[in-house]
Design a protein that fits this description.
The chain is mostly beta strands and 126 residues long. 0% of the residues lie in helices and 40% in strands.
Amino acid sequence: MEPSPSDVGRYLHLDLRIGEDSKLNRIGIGLRLVNGYMQHWRLHQSKENRLVLPVESNTFGKPLRVDLHHSNWKLFDADGTVDRGPLKPDFSVIASVNLSLGGFEELEQRPTKGSGVLDIHELRLE
């Protein structure tokens, strides 16, 4: 089934794996996107809690799928670009994908301390 025009570019797919030399068997990723207005948007699990995505596989082919139309994107207001664009996420242009990496622990709002290796195979919009 072909996606509708409004859904094209709706999902960000990240095909990642834990590298062979990694000391971690679970890697946590905090995701922040920069839109065309240079605003930074963080992905949250709820209004207050950031979402940390887990990578637990040492093989490619199990991509993380992030919904760009999800309602839990929060404007990162500490960088001075808050008033340069919309107050709702607009990802018609994605200038940057920022990943913060570390260990993964349930209920943590940021990746935890840890040393690991993450292989990135593909980042794509679908």
